[in-house]
Hints:
Blueprint: E1 3-7, H1 11-23, E2 27-31, H2 37-46, H3 49-52, E3 58-61, E4 72-75, H4 91-108, E5 113-116, H5 121-132, E6 139-141, H6 144-159, E7 166-167, E8 170-171, E9 179-180, E10 186-187, E11 190-191, H7 192-195, H8 198-209, H9 211-219, H10 226-240, E12 245-254, E13 260-271, E14 274-278, H11 285-308
Parallel strand pairs: 1-2, 1-4, 2-3, 4-5, 5-6
Antiparallel strand pairs: 7-10, 8-9, 10-11, 12-13, 13-14
Bound molecules: adenosine-5-diphosphoribose.
Adenosine-5-diphosphoribose (APR) binds near residues 76 and 101.
Amino acid sequence: MKKISIIGAGMTGATTAHWLAERELADLVLVDVVDGMPQGKALDMLEAMPIIGKDVEIVGANEYAATKDSDIIIITAGLPRKPGMSRDDLLSANAEIVGKAATETLKYSPDAFYIVLTNPLDTMAYLTMKKTGLPRNRVVGQAGILDSARMRAFVAMETGVSVENIDCYVLGGHGDEMVPLTRHSNIAGIPLREYLPPDRLEAIVNRTRKGGGEIVNLLKTGSAFYAPSAACAQMAEAILKNKKLIVPCAAYMDGEYGLHDMFFGVPVMLGANGMEKIIEYQLDDKEKAMFDKSAAAVKETHEALKKLVSL
Ligand code: APR
């Protein structure tokens, strides 16, 4: 059985474990700093396995040693957003937590792939890659699947069509400047722009951009966790099953889309070698302008990180 360790057993971490256990994909380890909490959640989830008929071992721990020989490390540890807080406000608090989680886990699992979920997402993925010194195929950030799924859900709500028929692509940084690509989105092959009037499409794009904040404002005590964790599980599955799945993820840019030395949300292919390929869309001028604006925002957060942490 493969092994996946999830660092941070809070809302997103524990729910990622839940989605993964349902898929019977790997044995699971939950690590958190809170005494007893990861152990309690792991045991509770383990006791659910006979009910759903899945043979998965689930262990909770406060020490990184429990993650030894993991195939995948998923980092969700950190502080969630509170109302009024931007993702970037989280930077200094989460940089310390994620940096330690990345370097400590690598000691026990030198061959692992990393999926980063902690916000500010693009910058935490960048930090993980720099701190571990891993090649770029072994570190990806989760964001684009979530943002695209939100847009797909809103299109389904608007049109009454099955979510399975709806393909949407949201690229760029995981922030308010994200780039929903309406030209590349479709319902059963029909371009979204033909299916929906411009004002409805515009409303969906705006709601997608603010999708994270909408949940934060409703929950008041935390941020979204069901959809982000479902996205993480899909990424882990694509890697472990060598699916060659093309999905939007935060990946390290080395000249693609004209971007260098930064993480950014682009379509990638996920397979047994992790982030195997970056797919380059042809962007028109308007899309390119949105891309550049989003990239500038992400770059700014990367620069802020470099002032806080030596990389
Ligand atoms: N090591 C391990 N776990 C830690 C550490 C650490 N150094 N520091 C904090 N944690 C744990 C907390 O104890 C908590 O259980 O991380 C967990 C985070 O869980 P939640 O507070 O429930 O937050 P969650 O909703 O899971 O979001 C975590 O993911 O989506 C992003 O913006 C979100 O950055 C946030 C992160």
